[in-house]
Design a protein that fits this description.
The complex is a heterodimer. By secondary structure, chain A is of the alpha/beta class. Chain A has a single domain, classed as 3-Layer(aba) Sandwich (Rossmann fold). Helices cover 32% and strands 26% of the residues of chain A. In chain A, the strands form two sheets. In chain A, strands 6-7-8-3-9-10 form a six-stranded mixed beta sheet, with helices on both faces. A four-stranded antiparallel beta sheet of chain A has the order 2-1-4-5, covered by helices on one side. Chain A is globular. Chain B has one domain. Chain B is built from eleven helices and two strands, in the order H-H-H-H-E-E-H-H-H-H-H-H-H. Chain B is globular, with a radius of gyration of 19 Å. The N and C termini of chain B lie far apart (40 Å). Classes of the chains: A alpha/beta, B mainly alpha. Chains A and B meet through helix 2 and helix 3 of A and helix 6 and helix 7 of B.
């Protein structure tokens, strides 16, 4: 991967100078972050460095004490999470977040929505074609699925909202290697369909192989933001920031 | 007990159970979906009954009164949710109990100021003021049958709404993961407002349609509230299906209890609740 191929694309999501606290704990220290249309960004860092907090702050699930979040150029720092999501941003959270009391079909159908511009490229049929395993389990409750199937359901449900940007937080965590490979292949398909993605995952090699750009957080600060190959080819940076 | 008498008690028990379901389904939905313990739920039953009485006195028709009162109770529910209940979703249940107990006192005081402390009767609509003869000397009021029919229709509509529609899926999803629902672009606050208003309107509607049978009197909400909490506990918190099963069970147990063992009739439902709690602490249809 070389330079960001989407430099001229519309900025979908932009955070500037974010300071986020949990109680008295200062988690994010002036974080800047942006995603352009069609771009794939690897958000990396060791555990507890603020990756999930950054995602939650940009999604309105946690309020920053300082800084700004813009979605498609509009200030949405104080906007409700659903309003941010409706501007084309979908979230696959750590821990999956399926609705165990709904069937697989219901998990998908309840989320269906057209894109911001009215497109409906992802519908029930396309999601089931992408995740055939889910098609065999439409009547099952969310809680009856395996870990891999639950992850597929969460990604499929996010796609039902026809997003322009898909944020994946630890999508392969806790999955068997074979299933994790399947998830990576699906992420590639999603990326190829033109949806911008932000990927948080402990498999740094896989993330950097996909991402145009990588951003590394250390103790709530951005310590690296640049082309993924600049990071992956620099053993000293990899060791210092990511411990690998 | 001959068959006609048994049939009358059976119909009475079912009618009482179905009416309880209208009130209890709202209570269990608000508790199960939003996590709110609403001690003031019975007060909305009372408000419904008083609205039916006062508006039917004004318009001369119970039907017209009900049609006018339903939107009023929906607005009341939405207003209270936005003004008060919304601030308590993330709070401990103790705050909810304190607020809703306070609301009971406020509603009783307002009722006393607006409508007074007398007992009032409400006339059965002319069209339904008839009886169906069962034997030479026993008959059954058409109005009671009509109430049961309306309750059954509403129960079916509620089941359809919750189980078969996208809104119902969103409501159920909201009960399991509020943040995730919002992350999918769904306005959970609006959904909570709608669920709360629906629950309140159902309780108030039950008070309206039952007003010709029960009369309208101070503190009538408290009696209903206690029995509805028993329904919710037996049926399982948050389960509409459970509320239906428990309502019918209690309706029949109380009605037949008053006929067969009047000395202990008042305790039957509580004994029933104790048995269910020992056998299935999560209730008949609870998730455990």
């Amino acid at each position: 991967m070389t330079e960001d191929p989407q430099q001229s694309g519309e900025v979908l999501l932009e955070a500037g100078g974010l300071h986020t606290f949990y109680g008295v704990s200062h988690i994010l220290h002036g974080v800047d972050f942006s995603v352009r249309r069609g771009e794939t960004i690897g958000l990396m860092g060791r555990n507890g460095m603020g990756k999930t907090t950054l995602l939650k702050t940009m999604l309105g699930l946690v309020r920053p004490r300082e800084g700004q979040v813009k979605v498609r150029g509009i200030d949405m720092t104080q906007a409700a999470t659903h309003a941010i999501a409706r501007r084309g941003i979908a979230y696959v959270p750590e821990g999956r977040g399926i609705f165990p009391n709904l069937s697989v079909r219901e998990n998908l159908v309840m989320a269906a929505r057209a894109a911001v511009d009215g497109r409906r490229e992802w519908d029930f049929g396309r999601v089931i074609a992408t995740f055939p395993r889910l098609g065999e389990r439409l009547g099952n409750g969310g809680a009856q699925l395996s870990g891999g199937e639950q992850q597929m359901l969460t990604i499929g449900r996010a796609l039902m909202t026809n997003p322009d940007l898909l944020i994946l937080d630890e999508a392969t965590e806790g999955l068997a290697p074979l299933i994790a490979r399947e998830i990576w292949s699906i992420i590639k398909t999603i990326r190829a369909s033109g949806i911008a993605t932000v990927i948080v995952d402990k498999n740094y090699a896989a993330v950097m192989a996909l991402a145009n750009r990588s951003v590394v957080l250390v103790k709530g600060r951005v310590v690296f933001s640049g082309a993924s190959n600049e990071l992956s080819e620099n053993a000293e940076l990899m060791q210092r920031f990511l411990g690998v | 007990m001959d068959f006609a008498f048994f049939l009358i008690q059976l119909l009475n028990g079912l009618q009482y159970g179905l009416l309880l379901f209208l009130v209890a389904s709202g209570l269990t939905l608000i508790f199960g979906i939003m996590g709110i313990i609403n001690l003031a739920h019975g007060s909305f039953y009372m408000v419904g009954a008083y609205l039916a009485w006062s508006l039917s006195a004004m318009t001369g028709s119970l039907t017209a009164a009900i049609l006018l009162a339903i939107p009023l109770t929906v607005i009341l529910g939405m207003g209270l949710e936005r003004l008060l209940f919304r601030h308590l979703y993330q709070r401990d249940h103790l705050y909810q109990v304190l607020l809703t107990y306070g609301l009971i006192l406020v509603f009783e005081e307002l009722r006393s100021m607006i409508w007074g402390d007398d007992v009032h009767g409400v006339a059965v609509p002319e069209l339904l003021n008839a009886s169906i003869p069962l034997t030479d000397n026993l008959s059954y009021p058409v109005y009671r049958l009509a109430i049961s029919g309306v309750c059954l229709l509403l129960a079916a509509a509620l089941y359809f709404l919750i189980q078969k529609t996208r809104l119902g899926m969103m409501i159920r999803a909201g009960a399991s993961n509020r943040d995730m629902v919002q992350s999918l672009g769904i306005d959970i606050k609006l959904i909570y407002t709608l669920v709360f208003a629906l629950g309140i309107a159902l309780a108030a509607f039950a008070g309206m349609i039952n007003s010709p049978l029960s009369s309208v009197f101070p503190n009538m909400g408290s009696q209903v509230l206690i029995i509805c909490f028993v329904v919710v506990v037996i049926g399982g918190i948050g389960s509409v299906k459970g509320a239906m099963a428990a309502s019918l069970m209690i309706g029949l147990a109380e009605t037949f209890g008053q006929v067969l063992v009047p000395e202990v009739a008042g305790t039957i439902v509580y004994v029933l609740m104790a048995i269910v709690l020992v056998w299935r602490p999560e209730g008949l249809f609870g998730k455990g």
